Amino acid sequence: MSWLRRRLSQSSIPRQEVAFVTSRLFSRRSLTLSAMAAAAATAALPRGARAAFPNRPLRILVGFAAGGTVDSVARVLANGMSPILGQQVIIENKPGGSGSIAANAAIGAEPDGHTLLFGIFSLAVAPALTKLSYDTTRDLTAVSQVASVPLFMLTAANAPYRSVADLVAAAKAAPDTITYASGGVGSSAHMAAELFTRRAGIRLIHVPFRGSAPALQALIAGQVQMLWDTPTPAMRDFITQGKLRALAVMTQARLPAYADIPAIGEVGLGNDLEVQAWQGVLVRAGTPPPIVATLNRAVVDAMSQPETRQRVAAVGVEPMATSAAAFDSFFKSEVARWTAVARQAGISTQ
């Protein structure tokens, strides 16, 4: 541009006009260079990170019907995340296939962080039970675990078993005579029972029901002798009323809230019998890491609120929040663990 300035200064054009023309040219050149630099910087960003996040309402897909424990926890979480993210977080129920319908929908969504999956224990078991159209660990990215739900080993109060040792002795004395209920094939209760029986070297008869509520009623009615279940309000009431007896909780150490109930880690069958019916948030694989980090912070902040924690605990679930890396490691270990148990036991829904 210096040559143009010299030529203009040597012409008959007044000096003021020369200054005006050159200043306009320099300004346009600067704007052009700035625009080119901005375009290059934008192009270097991942496609999903070019716009501010979130820039519209988010949805959390829940693979179970409205009104249940899973749905209730997801709604509490959504309410807590909305003000943090500055966008409405909507619950969208997609029941069926033990959560696989919702998982498939989440995997089919754009990897921009606006569609989340509220996954539970069954998500880790599904690959071993049925043929899926997706790869659970490859096609999903962990955001945070949000809840841990212990399982209890229950009998009717009038049953002859007063301890885990009593149950094991009775089952060994008369194999394939003691029945236990569950909320369905591949449910957390079913898998916990399979893990326990294999470690104890006993055989029980599995009686699956469509949901944990009818399974609990079957135990109360004396239709089955055993049940593994999460601490629902109904279960706690039956224990308090003396209608049920908890032989153990499937944890390594006793829980402060149930200090009088032995932990499965105390019975001498190994240190790998702990089972939790966990819940957590995931997104489609390929979601940009900065967006995953934003979602993780929103979940952690929401689950740190006293009101959120109280509402989650009220439905019998222990609230928690983890880093994305911690949940990713746990989730993958759960898939590997329950795939092995299901294959060893020959469990399948096909």
From TrEMBL:
<protein>
    <submittedName>
        <fullName>Tripartite tricarboxylate transporter substrate binding protein</fullName>
    </submittedName>
</protein>
<dbReference type="InterPro" id="IPR042100">
    <property type="entry name" value="Bug_dom1"/>
</dbReference>
<comment type="similarity">
    <text>Belongs to the UPF0065 (bug) family.</text>
</comment>
<dbReference type="InterPro" id="IPR005064">
    <property type="entry name" value="BUG"/>
</dbReference>
<dbReference type="Pfam" id="PF03401">
    <property type="entry name" value="TctC"/>
</dbReference>
